[in-house]
Design brief:
three-stranded antiparallel beta sheet; seven-stranded mixed beta sheet; 479 residues; alpha/beta; 20 helices
Length: 479
């Protein structure tokens, strides 16, 4: 077999198949491999006219088909399956070759794999890919980590197949060393969880408080999508709400079980934030909301509990309320992104990745699930002030939240008094109010900790750590 393929893809389920087709459509010769060879041949038979594919049936054939340095993309299930593929192919590679993991791997696994393969002279490139099956085919947002050397060889190929935004700018950047790419993809998915939760809460408020039908809410979302909330998720939400189930002629959203699933990246975002000491309360509430939705027995046992039932508004009141919900949704969305970028910054500092937050915002403008018009403004904010501590410190966003204040709070009052759960909106406002507070009750918490555990505290009027002798004369000693 001649060594002709510039890149190879192993793992030809939907994402892997479409990514291979994307490379081929962009002029690259692509080697194909799958554990089940029939899937390889089916791809060539169905899509062979899209470009040049080199089908292979064994690992040895696959590696032999790749030109040096070999670029081998693995698109298999994260975890043990990924390790098994690496163990199969790594012995067949040579120093300078690279393995690109395009799955949703945990960044800690990526760091381990990168270190192990680096010792063998092989580059391991943990690469976050967002955009689903359509993005993989037509242009995703791509978040590669790994070495600078690997990006010099692989980067131009990724830039060609990626989504384009702005002035045809590729939605890909070298995020940073080892696990940086998968870390950023993890946080991207956490923000995605929060975004979807906030949209869901806006829908429920418009349905239960404003009394709007799904069809009417679809119209409202389409209107929102023409303004500052312009985004992929708002766009598809309108389509989902407007869809009618063919079997029952009922709104599609009414025939779907209200139990959401999750694949783990949102949960990882929260777990790692706890490890880093970064508050991502909005993302956490989105993860918990999905979890709660799945506890059917618990919910069934609790429906009799006392509380108000929503009382639909009049049509003029509903229209005014919808405007308030738009304000609350936008302000809460800003907070979610603020928390996500804070976690990326903390991870970058902890693991010495030197991640460019502005570049992250830039590559999320196209291809990915959370692509949104206001990412242009986030990009600009970080370009204007690379050391920006928080998005809420940017004057433009701060002014918009200031303008949304009254409506944001009014929506939460309405939700509370009418018994509509809005954990995402509430968490976002609580985070915002905590940041702007002059004093927090953490001072009392420190006093309690010192009382029962002699954990010490710091004073506002002088340096040092102190402990109060609570059991005696309550005098203070320096710790």
């Amino acid at each position: 077999m001649s060594t002709t393929a510039q890149i190879g893809v192993t793992g030809l389920a939907v994402m892997g198949r479409n990514l291979a087709r994307n490379f081929a459509r962009n002029g690259y010769t692509v080697a194909l491999h799958n554990r089940t060879a029939s899937r390889t041949h089916a791809l060539v038979k169905e899509f062979g006219e899209e470009g040049i594919f080199v089908p292979t049936e064994t690992a040895e054939e696959f590696v032999a088909a790749l030109e040096r340095p070999r670029r081998l993309v693995i698109m298999v299930k994260a975890g043990e399956a990924t390790d098994a593929v690496i163990q199969e192919f790594a012995p067949l590679l040579e120093p300078g070759d690279m393995i690109i993991d395009g799955g949703n791997a945990h960044f800690a696994d990526t760091r381990r794999r990168e270190k192990d393969l680096r010792e063998q002279g092989i580059h391991f490139v943990g690469t976050g890919i967002s955009g689903g099956e359509e993005g993989a085919l037509h242009g995703p947002s791509i978040m590669p980590g790994g070495s600078v050397e690997s990006y010099a060889s692989l980067g131009p190929m990724l830039e060609r197949i990626s989504a384009k935004a702005g002035n045809c700018e590729p939605c890909v950047t070298h995020v940073g060393p080892d696990g940086a790419g998968h870390f950023v993809k993890m946080v991207h998915n956490g923000i995605e969880y929060a975004d979807m939760q906030l949209i869901g809460e806006a829908y429920q408020l418009l349905r239960d408080v404003a009394g709007c039908s799904p069809e009417r809410i679809a119209e409202i979302f389409r209107t929102w999508n023409e303004g500052r909330l312009d985004s992929y998720l708002i766009d598809i939400t309108a389509d989902v709400l407007a869809h009618t189930d063919a079997a029952t002629d009922r709104p599609f959203v009414d025939i779907v079980q209200d139990q959401a699933e999750q694949k783990g990246t949102g949960r990882w975002t929260v777990q790692i934030a706890l490890d880093l000491g970064v508050p991502v309360s909005g993302i956490a509430e989105a993860v918990f909301a999905r979890s709660l939705s799945g506890h059917a027995e618990l919910r069934d046992a609790s429906r009799h509990l006392a509380g108000p039932k929503p009382d639909a508004l009049s049509e003029p009141e509903a229209a005014a309320f919808a405007d308030k919900v738009e304000q609350a949704l936008y302000a809460s969305k800003i907070v979610s992104y603020t928390q996500g970028f804070h976690e990326i910054a903390a991870g970058s500092e902890t693991y010495d990745w030197d991640i460019d937050l502005g570049a992250v915002a830039r590559i999320w403008r196209g291809g990915c699930i959370i692509r949104a018009a206001f990412l242009d403004r986030i990009t600009a904010a970080y370009e204007a002030e690379p050391g920006l501590v928080s998005l809420l410190s940017d004057k433009g966003f701060a002014d918009e939240i200031a303008a949304a204040q009254d409506d944001w709070r009014a929506v939460l009052v309405a939700a509370t008094t009418q018994g509509v759960p809005t954990p995402g909106f509430a968490a976002a406002l609580a985070y915002y109010d905590a940041l702007r507070a002059e004093r927090l009750p953490a001072a009392l918490t420190q006093g309690q900790r010192d009382f029962f555990g002699a954990h010490t505290y710091r004073r506002t009027d002088r340096e040092g750590s102190f402990h109060t002798l609570w059991g005696g004369d309550r005098s203070e000693v320096e710790a």
